[in-house]
Amino acid sequence: MVVVVASPSPLSLLPSSYSLSFPFPAAFVLLGRRRLRCRPFDSAAASGHLGAISRRLVSITKNPSLRAMGDEVASTSAPPLEEAPNTEGDKTGSVKQLLSKLVKSSLRATFPDLLDIEPLVAASVKFGDYQCNNAMSLWSRIKGSGTNFKNPNSIGQAVARNLPPSDIIESTSVAGPGFVNIILSNRWVSERIHDMLINGIKNWAPALPVKRAVIDFSSPNIAKEMHVGHLRSTIIGDTLARMFEFSNVEVLRRNHVGDWGTQFGMLIEYLFEKFPNWEDVGTQAIGDLQEFYKASKKRFDDDPAFMERAQQAVVKLQGGEAKYRDAWKKICEISRNEFDQVYQRLNVVLEEKGESFYNPYIPSVLEELTSKGLVKESDGARVIFIEGQTIPLIVVKRDGGYNYASTDLAALWYRLNVEKAEWIIYVTDVGQQQHFDMFFSAARMAGWLPDPGEKMFPKTSHVGFGLVLGSDGKRFRTRSSEVVRLGELLDEAKARSKAELVQRLNENGKIGEWTDEELEKTSEAVGYGAVKYADLKNNRLTNYTFSFDQMLNDKGNTAVYLLYAHARICSIIRKSNKDIEELKTIGSISLNHPDERVLGLHLIRFAEIVEEACTNLLPNVLCEYLYNLSEIFTRFYTSCQVVGSPEETSRLLLCQATAVVMRKCFHLLGITPVYKL
Fold first, then answer.
1. What's the EC number here (predicted)?
2. Which CATH number is 95-184 given?
3. In the chain, what are the domain boundaries?
4. First and final CA of the chain: distance in angstroms?
5. Has residue 91 got a pLDDT over 60?
6. For residue 419, what are the CA distances in angstroms to 47, 50, 208?
7. What is the pLDDT of residues 461-500, one digit of tens each?
8. What is the DSSP string of 459-491?
9. Crossing angle of helices 304-318/263-274, nearest 10°?
10. What is the Cα–Cα distance from 348 to 341, expressed in whole angstroms?
């Protein structure tokens, strides 16, 4: 279900002569995206009583994920040199974060004079469950300074000795040049999984270094239908928002729709010309908005007199003339209704603050930038020169009009000053990278953002993504070279999914066990999920080839395979005829078989995978985890009998834990799970 928060544009609330004038602390730039659904307009902001920007520069700590190996291994165990941090009662955060606390305590005890050391902890496969990789970098700092340490290995030995006692760690060893290998306690892993089953997977949410973020995604243009080009921004942005929200970050989902600009003069004038009584005719006057846009554009290009009237219409619209403002609102309303149909099908929630929302703020933003000496005159335009760039950032065009950059400057100011966002993320195609580089540079010049090397907040990030290609390696289009409408693409995904499902059920004789409603819902879940997963499983920076045949394949790394894998786990639990809720309260989990332990370890790493995906803004990291989880479960189920075995209770709980984690992965990816094959 989509929640739509609609509110009037600031322009509809202000008189046409209204001019905002209030001090802006600095400036920024953003590029042509768009966004959707409006929050109520902040009248205090419009009145000019906004506070100075709160920079809240918060230090970030990054734990680089280093994989290392060595050949010398020495077991270590010794009492700590300082009191242990309370990790036993701390159920929140990832395993990596909990171990980092222990390692940090050891580093403080081992090197009390080096207060800037941060623990380098990473999951390991070959030499332990986790590994601390601080020794080599520490040796490079202290060698030759009269230290008692002889080499990196001796540093690793000391770090391992000084680890506080903890139920988390079973044993440690030191390999090669000081790599501290950590083996987790089976009992602790089992209890952590059991605790999740009882108290919910929310307890596994990672701790991120921000409390509020803006994620700017989807961003279609008003009067243009959503097409496959909007698919990646919408899907990637929604997944990032879901992961941040799961991590207890307040996410402002922003859809910066293109609802302002010269094209509206063309559309309004064409509406008036074709339907003088358009107010009485209503929505029927426009009909297919895409065709209406094409017709008005052709008229604009072919008829100079019409072009002149359209340009005058822009002036009247921006001047607040009621007739033109009403027509503009009607066109926007029709577009939003069409957008909403797509968002509802994708189960995506957005809040609109489009270009028109920020328009009243632009003059004061540019005034502030000018007072800081950033805005210069160049060839009749007003620009900001960015060091290292061959072209300037244009903020006012030669004709005096505003552009994407000026709107984006105002939007960024609003997000920093009014919405108090600590991390502002823009999800657009990689083709806009230069604009964002210039935009973020201008912001730093204006003093809004710290230098990126300082690892401080607030900060901005551009989440670029590649193209959706057809089988010919070119942009994905219809046979008639038209862009593929997103609604039609989803229709086909559902239809193909349903056809394959019906065929499968007919072949195994189970079609009679399914109701029409079940067929419809499962076809939607699998079809739409297949489209989303086929996009998200790729590194977003790369292009990917759109293929229904591949994405609807029930073998390999596809949503269909994963959804059916989840349904099979649910079937195992159902066929046991055991009450899983009762088993949670009376049973326990043991990890005695190697494949049980591998599955348990993979389950508890879920939180740090979400943390990594959020930190690097890469949804494919979560997809890889989910696929690996399915493969690991298959190995477990093949080698470990579940129903009827002496370990039935423990293994059913492991099945349930796997299903719970899979469902959370599906949720974060915006995919609806299926429970029945």
1. 6.1.1.19
2. 3.30.1360.70
3. 95-184, 486-669
4. 24
5. no
6. 16, 11, 19
7. 999 999 998 888 888 876 555 678 888 999 999 999 999 9
8. EEEEEEE--EE-TTSSB-B-TTSPBPBHHHHHH
9. 110
10. 10
